[in-house]
Design goal:
Blueprint (H helix, E strand, L loop, with lengths): L1 E2 L5 E5 L8 E5 L7 E7 L2 E7 L6 E3 L5 E2 L56 E7 L4 E5 L29 E8 L28
Antiparallel strand pairs: 1-2, 2-3, 4-5, 5-6, 5-7, 8-9, 8-10
Length: 202
């Protein structure tokens, strides 16, 4: 199942070894996009979704039946379809169900795989002039691996007990605020820190 930036989604397969491949296409999809491939015995079914909740079948007739060994590999791939162009892609929200075992493995084919940040939560601690403090932990337990800028709005109600008119210290950290442990690595950029009423939009 191959989502593309400008040519829709393609369900590609090779039903017989060394034979011609076949494909079923879905036009006009918007990225990011969700895809699902289900194997029941030797029958494969494909689905696609705009939100990861409501799924639409990619209909193949007759049903796609490909003889497989008892143990097979599954994986994710990226291809530019042009030997002169190096490309890259980011996969996220990957999950498996059923009798799937083993850890993911990666291979560098034409482009180095970025190591990225260690997956950690982030927290903010606010302390006032009287020494009273409150700590808020971001709901995303792996926010340090997010690929793009994320706004984190913290309601004053989450900082109950702190005098917000006399703030003297702010701590922003990753990992655990109560039981920090060494070993993580990566880079995080923090900007546009502010406080007050939410901005209005027209």
């Amino acid at each position: 199942l191959t989502p593309t930036p400008s040519h829709g989604l393609s369900f590609q397969r090779r039903p017989t070894a060394d034979a011609a491949s076949a494909n079923t296409d879905v036009a006009d999809i918007a990225l990011p996009h969700w895809v699902k491939l289900t194997r029941t015995g030797n029958v494969f079914a494909a689905q696609q979704s705009e939100d990861g909740e409501a799924w639409t079948d990619i209909v193949v007739s007759p049903a796609l039946d490909i003889g497989m060994a008892a143990n097979v590999y599954i994986g994710l791939a990226v291809c530019s379809h042009d030997t002169a162009i190096v490309t890259g892609a980011e996969f996220s929200n990957v999950s498996t169900t059923g009798n799937v075992t083993g850890a993911w493995q990666t291979a560098e084919i034409g482009i180095a795989q970025p190591a990225g940040n260690s997956a950690e939560a982030m927290y903010v601690t606010i302390e006032d002039s009287a020494g009273k403090s409150a700590t808020v932990v971001n709901a995303d337990a792996a926010i340090t691996v997010r690929p793009s800028w994320q706004e984190w709005a913290i309601p004053f109600s989450d900082l109950s007990g702190v005098n917000m008119g006399r703030v003297e210290k702010m701590i922003i950290g990753s990992g655990s605020a109560t039981a920090p442990a060494a070993g993580g690595s990566g880079t995080v950029y923090i900007d546009d820190i502010g406080h007050g009423r939410p901005a209005t939009t027209e």
